[in-house]
């Protein structure tokens, strides 16, 4: 087993730090350089169809039965009960080694005193806090047709008084999967810091995603506070990323061979699904392994969470691209600034970047259908904007308008459909349209796709990453497995992975946030 570097405090000499970075490059590069029921309704222009969730995932509810609320809550508690290694092992907990109230004994050992900084296992946080009076309320999320109030509690995250692992015996591994995202290094750093606070000495990084478990030549990287001290100052992933991976059984074979006790998985929807499969395989083999995920995606498209880490930074960087498009458009005669932003399943980045910029005249997202041609199409509105303003700015999400394009049918290594390029298509359509009607138009197309995800986390995301990383370690020591560390309704909680991977989270066209975006852009209905 690889051992972590032993340090006394957070200081590393420059020479030692350079050696560790060189070692990191050698290891990574070989050189020193649901089943969810959806409501269907007829196509109408406005308002958007309302969706009343009349079932929970496991129980069909009869709303005429006076006891339906009790049935719903019992089913909810069952679904959101956190899986634990104690489900398969009869384990006795031991007092935690995590405390921020410590003192040195005459022999130099640390005394850990209990304090009131622990979370009780019975602590809960409310997932939803708005009581909608009607399904017709903006953004209403109702269980029954009357929008009855039903409390939906989830488990509060944080350190427990009792733990189920001996820290000195633990081997913990961290893996970053999927694409890049601001904040990956912040989370890695905090996981290492918190593990060492518990007393874990054997911490390793798995290089290049799940591939690092089976690819020959990729060796695990020993991690320590000294090594990761400053990695948050850079974007990207200190451990490297990749998409796809081997069969679950092969990954668990590797986990078993490496004698890993805790696995921290940083990634989006697909990575979470993989983490849950690993968790299930470990349970099947009765392995005492805790698998904890941390939600990473700039798209912000994971169910039930307020936001995922990296989203705020991506929006901030996307706003810069929009502002550049605005300057280009305003400075040109009949200028049109067109910006395409990431958003595989949802338009959260496009919507929030448009709102934060305040310069966007048209925002197009995959959740709201639109047409380019015709009396009520986008192109006709652009004509109106050039006549009245002299310029305009358009922001489009990458998955928007795919029904207008020829499908490629290709998929990436993670199995995601590779979209046809709506940005290039719109650029060509706009140029052709204004040429046909004899109106000069100067189109400036900006695609900042990889720029928004390769940068360092901003202050907001850095704080979120810090808390999510620390809570992931607390959850593992508490014995939980198959969970994700996230923020819901402004509170930090643990959710079973099974509940967040049922479907991607999408922008609700009837939500107040989308209405705010429409108010800001002033755009009409294009459908």
How would you characterize this protein structure?
This protein is an alpha/beta fold. Helices cover 31% and strands 14% of the residues. It has 13 helices and 17 strands. The strands form four sheets. Strands 4-5-17-16-11-10-7-8-9 form a nine-stranded mixed beta sheet, sandwiched between helices. Strands 13-14-12-15 form a four-stranded parallel beta sheet, with helices on both faces. Strands 1-6 form a two-stranded antiparallel ribbon. A hairpin with a 2-residue loop joins strand 16 and strand 17. The longest helix has 21 residues, at 311-331. The protein starts with 13 loop residues before the first helix and ends in a 6-residue tail after the last helix.
Q: Structural class of the helices, strands and pairings?
A: alpha/beta
Fraction in helix: 25-40%
The low-pLDDT segments are 1-11, 13-17, 32-57
- What's the total number of strands? 17
Strand order of the largest sheet: 4-5-17-16-11-10-7-8-9
Mean pLDDT reading: 88
User: What is the C-alpha radius of gyration, as a whole number of Å?
Assistant: 25 Å
The sequence of SSEs as H and E is: HHEEEEEEEHEEHHEHEHEHEHEHEHEEHH
Number of helices: 13
Shape: globular
* Portion in beta strands: 5-15%
Largest sheet: 9 strands, mixed
CA(first)-CA(last) distance: 60 Å
Binding site for Mg(2+): 269
Catalytic activity: beta-D-fructose 6-phosphate + ATP = beta-D-fructose 1,6-bisphosphate + ADP + H(+)
Cofactor: Mg(2+)
Family: Belongs to the phosphofructokinase type A (PFKA) family. PPi-dependent PFK group II subfamily. Atypical ATP-dependent clade 'X' sub-subfamily.
């Amino acid at each position: 087993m690889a051992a972590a570097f032993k340090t006394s405090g957070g200081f590393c000499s420059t020479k030692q730090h350079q050696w560790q970075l060189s070692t990191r490059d050698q290891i990574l590069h070989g050189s020193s350089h649901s089943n969810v029921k959806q409501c269907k309704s007829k196509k109408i222009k406005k308002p958007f169809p309302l969706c009343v969730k009349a079932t929970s995932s496991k129980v069909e509810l009869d709303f005429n039965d006076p006891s339906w609320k009790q049935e719903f809550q019992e089913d909810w508690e069952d679904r959101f009960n956190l899986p634990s290694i104690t489900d398969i092992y009869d384990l006795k907990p031991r007092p935690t080694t995590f405390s921020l109230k410590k003192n040195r004994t005459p022999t130099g050992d640390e005394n850990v005193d209990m304090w009131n900084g622990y979370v009780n296992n019975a602590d809960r946080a409310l997932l939803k806090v708005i009581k909608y009076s009607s399904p017709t309320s903006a953004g209403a999320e109702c269980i029954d047709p009357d929008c009855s109030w039903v409390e939906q509690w989830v488990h509060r995250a944080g350190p427990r008084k009792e733990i189920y692992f001996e820290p000195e015996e633990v081997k913990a591994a961290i893996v970053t999967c999927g694409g890049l995202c601001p904040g990956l290094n912040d989370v890695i750093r905090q996981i290492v810091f918190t593990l060492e606070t518990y007393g874990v000495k054997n911490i390793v990084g798995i290089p290049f995603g799940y591939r690092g478990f089976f690819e020959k030549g990729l060796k695990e990287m020993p991690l320590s506070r000294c090594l990761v001290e400053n990695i948050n100052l850079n974007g990207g992933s200190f451990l490297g990323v990749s998409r796809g991976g081997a069969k679950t059984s092969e990954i668990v074979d590797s986990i078993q061979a490496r004698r890993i006790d805790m696995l921290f998985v940083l990634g989006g929807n697909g990575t979470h699904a993989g983490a849950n499969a690993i968790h299930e395989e470990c349970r099947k083999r009765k392995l005492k392994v805790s698998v904890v995920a941390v939600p990473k995606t700039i798209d912000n498209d994971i169910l039930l969470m307020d936001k995922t880490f990296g989203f705020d930074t991506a929006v901030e960087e996307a706003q810069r691209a929009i502002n550049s498009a605005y300057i280009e458009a305003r400075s040109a005669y009949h200028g049109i600034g067109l910006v395409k932003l990431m958003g595989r399943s949802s338009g959260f980045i496009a919507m929030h970047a448009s709102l934060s910029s305040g310069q966007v005249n048209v925002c197009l997202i995959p959740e709201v259908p639109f047409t380019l041609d015709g009396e009520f199409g986008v192109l006709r509105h652009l004509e109106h904007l050039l006549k009245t303003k002299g310029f305009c700015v358009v922001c489009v999400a990458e998955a928007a308008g795919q029904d207008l394009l020829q499908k490629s049918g290709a998929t990436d290594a993670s199995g995601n459909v590779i979209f046809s390029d709506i940005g290039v298509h719109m650029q060509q359509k706009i140029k052709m349209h204004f040429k046909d009607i004899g109106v000069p138009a100067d189109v400036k197309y900006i695609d900042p796709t990889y720029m928004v995800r390769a940068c360092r986390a901003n202050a907001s995301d850095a704080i979120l990453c810090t808390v999510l990383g620390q809570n992931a370690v607390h959850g593992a020591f508490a014995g939980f497995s198959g969970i994700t560390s996230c923020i819901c309704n402004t509170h930090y909680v643990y959710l079973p992975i099974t509940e967040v991977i049922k479907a991607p989270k999408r922008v609700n066209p009837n939500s107040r946030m989308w209405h705010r975006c429409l108010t800001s852009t002033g755009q009409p209905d294009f459908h």
